[in-house]
Amino acid sequence: MVLSKQFLKSILLFLCSVTGVVDGFAQKPTDAKAMVGKQRQALIDSMLQELPKQKEDTNKVTLLNGLAFTYWSVNAETGILYGQQGLALAAKLQWKKGIADAENKLGIDYQTVSDYPRALEYYTDALKKEEEIGNEKGIASVTGHIGLLYYCQNDNSKALEYHFKALKMQEKLGNKQAIAITTSNIGLSYYELHDYDKALEYDFKALKMAEERADKSNIAVVNSNIGTVYTMQKNYTMAIEYEQKALKADEELGDKHGALINLCNIGECFISIINDTAALNGTISEKPSPNGNQPDKVTFSPEMGLKKYKPTGAIPAGKAALLRSAIDYTQRAIVIAKEIHAMDVLVECYENLAEAYRLSGDYRQALECEKNYTAIKDSVFSNGNSEKIVKMSMQNDYVRKRLADSMETANARRMEALKLHQQRNYTYTGLAVIALLCVFTFFIIRNNKLITKEKQRSEGLLKRSDDLLLNILPAEVADELKEKGTAATRYFDNVTVLFTDFVNFTNAGARMSPQALIDELHTCFKTFDEITSKYGIEKIKTIGDAYLAVAGLPSADPLHAEQIVRAAIEINAFMQDRVAKLGNSTFDIRIGIHSGSVVAGIVGVKKFAYDIWGDTVNTAARMEQNSEAGRINISQTTYELVKDKFACAYRGETDAKGKGLLKMYFING
Fold first, then answer.
1. Contact partners, residue 128, CB within 8 Å, separation at least 6
2. Is beta strand 648-656 parallel, antiparallel or unpaired with respect to 588-603?
3. Tens digits of residue pLDDT in 138-163
4. For every residue of 430-449, which 3-state class applies, written as one string?
């Protein structure tokens, strides 16, 4: 979910304020996050004017590091450039404090652009140097950052370990602002561990501290975190109330990152309400909140865009209002995400917007959002040769025609030349005529050999291009595309979708070299391809470290669910064996499966690909996300199709993103 996962981007700025910004330009620590918008730009302008005047000394290092930090919420990529300059100069001066500060700031900027392995590298180096010089404030700050980084990578047990270390150090230093922030971060990790009562306990502690200090920026963040927890508890009234408080505060502060997250959360909250029939009927009893509010039932105010309604079978007025609100808030978030280059949030926004459009019945807009979502996700692992392959395959007819034309033209020209020779040689002696005929015969034979060779070469080229096209598209779709130039989108009623994902893949990237990481991915996915092909399953795509496949299309298969489960068992066994042999040089895997209906077709014009859409795909993804390492998690629908073939263990109902409570089962064999 986008809900709370991205809050660390606002909190990071708080933690950095503990160490100050730039001598001569720094604001008070409590104003670090509030100093945004015009104030932040004014500070940047002042620092840029001062930069050319500085000598190559520690003051310039401090100024460069300050720019790296100050650009954090404006343009983190620019911040990285200044951070690298500050680090280089500090290293040249052999100034450990400056090096540690530069690495800390670079960690923040790299974390902002979602380069988590690089961020961890800089944080680790910064912590080591802060410990060497005995800078307790710096140690506390970097420790908190590492906790947030582990939080971002879903390792929340590790995140809590670092959060509590940071909290202990901040309490020793007596830094009330940092104590409040770290307390809030602890609430975030408990949220990710689904311990919502603990999350609210720490959130309200943090809110109380922030209110006592009149720290508006921290109040905004904690309000948003509280709204997130209430959403997961289906206390939607309280969720939107706290999220809107946070949004108003961040807009007043000019904090684009904070506003972006608030807008995302509110949009997703509306979607959750739409998917929750009980909430729409106003029948959900809500728990009293720790701050004393005790709503009896869901009641939505008009300014929230919510109304009660009774289901009628069509989209009622209340649901339409919810959808308008969900789309409006998410579109506003997309504008900001593009502006500040927050690509990870942008992906989530497009996913949410696609779901909102599907719920409203606007499948054309939903498809456009899916395309944007896929394009951004696939950009990391895009293959530059794909376009060449597709272009070659699409030009088969053109190549054939051009080859035929070239041979015809060559023969015509040679025949004309022959006629000229014959006319000129009518007066030659018989011996000369015989010699000319011999030359002509040799020329024709040689010409025919060249033509045959060229035809064979062309046919081989066309065959290779056809084979490559079949690696991208199903055979039926490839044939339709070559024949008509287009392929129709089709609806498939009975299919089963498989999602796999590697656990803690980002952590693997930190401990493995880039080449080793890619080689291991290739080996694993190559085996997955062989297994799915064995069971007649159509591989759709890989998205980073995720693998998507479907059985039952483009040709119907009454055993689609059984075939997917058998393939999943083999994939899981392969990975378990590989982990036993290679340990940390490979990955643990989660697998999720769901059965239902999908729409399938070709996406885009350039670098197009065969893809599938629909609620079945989303639910399969939720099955994977709620699975466990080394386990295969299936939905109730799939269970009904395979329960007589495989041993299954009922897991109970689990709360899945945007789906509410879903019954889930583990495949045991």
1. none
2. unpaired
3. 999 999 999 988 888 788 889 999 99
4. HHHHHHHHHHHHHHHHHHHH
Return the CATH number of the domain spanning residue range 236-381: 1.25.40.10
Are the C-beta atoms of 443 and 414 separated by less than 8 Å? yes
Q: Residues 390, 607: contact at Cβ < 8 Å?
A: yes
What's the whole-model pTM score? 0.48
Spatial CB neighbours of 380, under 8 Å, sequence gap ≥ 6:
544
Q: Which residues are registered as beta bridge partners of 660?
A: 656
Report helix angle 176-192 to 156-173, nearest 10: 170
Q: Which helix (H) or strand (E) holds 590?
A: strand 588-603
Which residues of the chain register pLDDT less than 70? Answer: 1-39, 73, 277-317, 377-488, 509, 603-608, 669
| Helix orientation angle between 560-582 and 514-534, rounded to the nearest 10 degrees | 150
Angle of helix 8-17 relative to helix 216-232, nearest 10 degrees, comes to 150
CATH fold, domain 1-140, is 1.25.40
Peptide bond into 514 cis (omega under 30): no
| Residues 6+ positions from 661 with CB-CB distance below 8 Å | 653, 654, 655
Distance CA 18, CA 182 (A): 12
Q: Looking at the domain that runs over 488-667, which CATH code has it been given?
A: 3.30.70.1230
Could you give the CA distance from residue 220 to residue 224 in angstroms, rounded to a whole number?
A: 6
